[in-house]
Amino acid sequence: MSNEWFDSYIKAGKAVIAAKKLAEKLVRPGTSFLEIAKSCEEEIINQGCELSFPINMSLNELAAHYSPPIDDPTIVPNKGLLKIDLGSHHNGYIADSAITFNLDKDPKLQNYIVAAQEALDAAIELFKPGIKLYEIGEVIANKIHNHGLRPIRNLGGHELKQYNLHAGPFVPNVKDLSHREVLKPGDAYACEPFSTSGEGLVTNGKHSYIYRFVRHIKKNMPYEEISYMKKIEELTKNLPFSPRLLEKHDIIPKNKIQRIIETFKRKRILDDYPVLVEVTGAPVAQQEHTIILDLDGTPFVTTRIKN
Asked: Which domains does the chain have, with CATH numbers?
């Protein structure tokens, strides 16, 4: 493994660690989602990295993909489970990590977090060359079931590659024998158990707040749209982004951003990530780390906060 490859993953992980530490200070009832989002994302930039995706701030039955839109009025409520999922990259090498906050220290809800954390710890222990991905899913499911909960079986971890957040193989949260890929030296994965008291399935919600550039087109495009398209492609490097990023960098006038996004969705220039909702409306907890294997097969958890 080249030093650049390895060092970039480590640097990205340190940026996410810094942002998670900041989130732990900021997440309090009454604090605005936008304040937390802007502060944590800016911390990643301050650490010399860039965003690999916008912050996800998914509350209760929302499992993933809620990122505060422009002018979002949402504030942190007095109770519930708030999942903070943060991503950075350095030279395209990605760190992805999530933590769940129990906003009123409810013992019942704390069980969800403990279940997801124990599942993640067990998965990391198993993370070594020669292990099949479904074997990781099996230990995740067992740990979560031990707490009287269910893993979310249509969500899971994913391989990471340069400028590619979801690069291929899927790390299941259950024993799914279709995922027979074997871990090998040089691999990088995000592992993310989700626990719930519901059915253990998520479905697409009605709204999307995260987008990704997927193709460049030229025919039948007004000059203004071509200019915006090029700027989005250059800025995001095909990684997921929030419309807030376009506002921050003044890529598109604020009053045009949503209209341009909807136009680009229709033309399939952009793809979107609908908010993911647990099908029964049950609360969801998530814990996630990025793990890389060096050329000797030694695992490194790049996003773990050292005590």
From this structure: 3-205+281-301 (3.90.230.10), 210-274 (1.10.10.10)
